[in-house]
Specification:
The complex is a heterodimer. Chain A contains 13 helices and four strands. Chain A is an all-alpha fold. Chain A has one domain. In chain A, the strands form two sheets. A two-stranded antiparallel sheet of chain A has the order 1-4. In chain A, strands 2-3 form a two-stranded antiparallel sheet. In chain A, strand 2 and strand 3 form a beta hairpin. In chain A, helix 2 crosses helix 10, helix 4 packs across helix 9 and helix 7 packs across helix 9. By secondary structure, chain B is α/β, with parallel strands linked by helices. Chain B has two domains: 165 residues, P-loop containing nucleotide triphosphate hydrolases (Rossmann fold, 3-Layer(aba) Sandwich), CATH 3.40.50.300; 86 residues, P-loop containing nucleotide triphosphate hydrolases (Rossmann fold, 3-Layer(aba) Sandwich). In chain B, the strands form two sheets. Chain B has a six-stranded mixed beta sheet with strand order 6-7-8-3-9-10, with helices on both faces. A four-stranded antiparallel beta sheet of chain B has the order 2-1-4-5, covered by helices on one side. The chains are: A mainly alpha, B alpha/beta. Chains A and B meet through helix 6, helix 7 and helix 8 of A and helix 2, helix 3, helix 4 and helix 5 of B.
C-alpha cells in the first residue's frame, strides 16, 4: 500500500501540527480561568454565564439534530427536568455533593429523553419535531401543576438551597462562573469524545442515509434512542446551570417553548454538526437583543411612540438578522469563522 | 439443488401491483449471478426482499442454511449480506474513509463507554477497523481519496465508495444494484474487472443487476432473466442467450 497522499486540498488538511491544537486548548483553558479577573459582575452574570450555558444547551440539541439528524423543538423541557431534578436532589438528599447531583439530574433528563425519543423510531423530520412538542407541553404542565416538584412553594418557583463544592461557596458571580465553565469544559470534552468515536460516526451515517445505515448493520433504533438520551443529558445539566447558575430562582415557565426555539436557533445560526459553533450561536442569541437595547438608547426612537412598539421593532430586527444570516451563511457562523481563519492563515503564509 | 441463497415462490406487491410473482431460483456459493430484465421487471425489489428492506407477501428465502420469510436489514447485514444501491446511498457529508469505516459497524464489539472513553476493546477496534478500511480502499483504488467528503467526488468514484462500504465487512453475499449505471464502456469494463477480483480475492458470492447485456454475459457465470416479476430464464450465459423467450422479450428488442 502506498502512502496516503496529501492531495491538493479542496478542504484544508484537518491535521495541523499537533502542537497547535494542544496550545489552543491550553490557551483556551487559561483564558476561561482568567475571565473573572477581566470582567466585572455585570458581564459575568448577564452576558458570559448565560452565553456559556446556552452554548452548552446548543451542544445538547446539536448532538441530536446536527449529528443524528433528528429534529426536536422540545429542548427546554429536558432543561427543566435537569433543573427540577437538581433542586429536588439538593433538597431531599442533602448529603450528595453538587457534581454528583448534576450528573444524576442529567441522567434523569436522559431517561426522559429516551422515552420521548421513542416516536423517532417511526416518524422523522417535521412530524418528529411536532411530536417533541409533546415533551415541551407535558413537562411545563407537570412542573406547574404538581407543587411537590417545587417543594410546595406557593409561587411554584425553585431556588437552589446551596451551591457549593467541598465547602467552597459558589453563590458569587465568580463562583457561579467557575461552576458553569468547569461543567461546560468537561461536557465539551465529552461531546468531542462522542462525535469522534464509532458512536458519532454511526449517528452521522443515520443522519445522512438511514436506510443505508440499517442495511450495513448499524443498530439504527438503538443509536437514535442513545442520541436522544445523550442530548437530553447535556440539556438537563444545562437546565440546572440555567436555573441556579444564571437565574438563581426559576420556575417551569423559564423553560417554555420560546427557550426551545432559542436553542434551535443557536444550533442553526452557530452551525449544524459543530461543537464550538454553538457558543457563537449562543453569543448571537444573548448579545443581539442587548445590543439592540443599547442602540435604542443612543438613537432617538421617540417617533415610534410607546415602549411596546419599540420592543416589537427589536423583535423584527432580530428576526431579520436571523433570516439574512441564514441566507448568506446557511452553514452557520462557525463556517464563517472557519473561512476567516483560513483567509488569515493564507495571508500570513503569502506574506511570510 | 442447494445454494448459498435460495428463493422459494417469493411474491411481492405494492398496492395491488405485482412486483414479484412466485419467484424461485438459487445462487450457488462463489458464483457471480446477474439479474437482467427490462425496467420494472422487479430486479431492485428482489434485492430489497433479500436483505430485508422490503417484506415479501409470500414465499421464503434460505440464506446460508437459515430459512426466513422476512428479515430485518440489520439482521441481514449481521448474517453477512452486503449491499450497494442503484442511486448511491452514501453518507454524503462524511469522508470516504468514514463511509468505509461505517461499513464495519456490525463488527464493532466495544461498548458505548469503551468507545467514548477509549477504554478496553476500543483501541483494538479502532486499529482493526482502520486497517481493514485502508486495505479495502487501497484494493479499490480509493486510498488517494480517503480524506475527501464523498459528495465532492465524481459519480464513478462514489460508486466505488459504495462498493467499498459493502465490501469492507467481508460479506458472504454481495448484492450490487446497477454498479455500472451511468458509466461509459471503459468504466464498465473496469468495474467488471473489480467485481471479478472481489469475487475471486474476497470469495464473496455476487448477485448483481445490470442492463448492459454484453457486459453481463461476459461477467456472470449465472444469469436470471426477469420480466414483470416472473422468471423468464435461468442458467448459464450461453443458454440464456439462446433462449427464444429471452430474445423475444429482452435481448432482441432492447439491446
Amino acid at each position: 500500500m502506498t502512502t496516503l497522499q496529501e492531495s491538493a486540498p479542496t478542504k484544508p488538511l484537518r491535521r495541523p501540527a499537533l502542537g497547535v491544537g494542544t496550545i489552543a486548548i491550553v490557551a483556551g483553558l487559561v483564558a476561561a480561568f482568567a475571565v473573572p479577573a477581566l470582567a466585572d459582575d455585570y458581564w459575568l452574570s448577564s452576558i458570559i454565564i448565560p452565553t456559556v450555558i446556552m452554548g452548552l444547551a446548543g451542544i445538547g440539541l446539536n448532538l441530536l439534530m446536527g449529528y443524528t439528524g433528528l429534529v426536536s423543538i422540545g429542548s427546554a423541557a429536558f432543561m427543566s427536568i435537569g433543573a427540577f431534578s437538581t433542586y429536588n436532589l439538593l433538597l431531599r438528599a442533602p448529603f450528595l455533593p453538587l457534581p454528583v447531583v448534576l450528573i444524576l439530574a442529567g441522567l434523569i433528563a436522559a431517561a426522559a429523553g429516551v422515552i420521548f425519543g421513542l416516536p423517532s423510531l417511526r416518524i422523522k423530520g417535521f412530524y418528529l419535531g411536532a411530536s417533541t412538542l409533546g415533551a415541551q407541553f407535558f413537562f411545563e404542565w407537570l412542573f406547574t401543576n404538581f407543587s411537590w416538584f417545587s417543594n410546595d412553594s406557593q409561587s411554584l418557583t425553585i431556588s437552589a438551597p446551596r451551591l457549593q463544592i467541598l465547602d467552597y461557596d459558589l453563590q458569587s458571580a465568580t463562583g457561579r462562573y467557575y461552576l458553569v465553565i468547569a461543567t461546560t469544559v468537561l461536557l465539551i470534552a465529552l461531546a468531542f469524545a462522542i462525535v469522534k468515536s464509532r458512536v458519532g460516526r454511526e449517528w452521522m451515517a443515520i443522519r445522512d442515509m438511514d436506510v443505508a445505515a440499517s442495511v450495513i448493520g448499524i443498530r439504527v433504533a438503538r443509536r437514535k434512542l442513545l442520541s436522544f438520551g445523550i442530548s437530553s443529558f447535556f440539556l438537563g445539566i444545562a437546565g440546572a446551570l440555567w436555573a441556579f447558575g444564571y437565574l438563581g430562582t426559576s420556575d417551569a415557565h423559564a423553560f417554555n417553548l420560546d427557550k426551545s426555539f432559542q436553542i434551535l436557533f443557536i444550533v442553526i445560526i452557530g452551525g449544524v454538526a459543530t461543537i464550538f459553533g454553538n457558543f457563537l450561536g449562543a453569543a448571537f442569541i444573548v448579545l443581539t437583543p442587548i445590543l439592540l437595547d443599547r442602540l435604542s438608547l443612543v438613537i432617538d426612537l421617540s417617533f415610534l411612540g410607546d415602549q411596546g412598539a419599540l420592543a416589537n421593532l427589536q423583535h423584527i430586527i432580530f428576526g431579520t438578522i436571523i433570516i439574512v444570516l441564514l441566507i448568506k451563511e446557511p452553514d452557520g457562523l462557525s463556517s464563517l469563522g472557519r473561512r476567516g481563519v483560513e483567509a488569515l492563515r493564507s495571508r500570513t503564509r503569502s506574506s511570510g | 439443488m442447494s445454494g448459498l441463497l435460495e428463493l422459494h415462490d417469493v411474491s411481492l406487491s405494492f398496492k395491488g401491483v405485482r412486483a414479484l410473482n412466485a419467484l424461485s431460483f438459487s445462487v450457488a456459493k462463489g458464483e457471480i449471478c446477474a439479474l437482467i430484465g427490462p425496467n420494472g421487471a422487479g430486479k431492485s425489489s428482489l434485492l430489497n426482499v433479500i436483505n430485508g428492506v422490503y417484506r415479501a407477501d409470500a414465499g421464503d428465502i434460505v440464506f446460508d442454511g437459515l430459512r426466513f420469510e422476512a428479515i430485518h436489514p440489520q439482521k441481514a447485514a449481521h448474517l453477512g449480506i452486503g449491499r450497494t444501491f442503484q442511486h448511491n446511498a452514501l453518507f454524503r457529508r462524511l469522508s470516504v474513509r468514514e463511509n468505509v469505516l461505517a461499513g464495519l459497524s456490525r463488527h464493532g464489539n466495544a461498548s458505548f463507554f469503551e468507545n467514548i472513553f477509549r477504554l478496553g476493546r476500543d483501541g483494538a477496534e479502532r486499529h482493526g477497523f482502520l486497517a481493514r478500511a485502508e486495505r479495502t480502499m487501497s484494493f479499490l483504488g480509493l486510498d488517494r481519496h480517503a480524506g475527501k467528503i464523498v459528495s465532492t467526488l465524481p459519480y464513478g468514484l462514489q460508486k466505488r465508495v459504495d462498493l467499498a462500504r459493502a465490501l469492507v465487512a467481508g460479506p458472504k453475499l454481495l448484492l450490487l444494484d446497477e454498479p455500472m449505471a451511468g458509466m461509459n464502456q471503459e468504466e464498465k469494463e473496469e468495474m467488471s474487472r473489480v467485481i471479478r477480483e472481489v469475487n475471486r480475492v474476497f470469495g464473496s458470492t455476487v448477485v448483481l443487476i445490470e442492463h448492459d447485456v454484453g457486459i453481463v454475459l461476459n461477467l456472470a457465470s449465472h444469469v436470471v432473466v426477469l420480466d414483470y416479476g416472473r422468471k423468464l430464464a435461468d442458467g448459464a450465459p450461453d443458454e440464456v442467450r439462446k433462449n427464444p423467450d429471452v430474445i423475444a422479450a429482452y435481448l432482441g428488442t432492447v439491446h
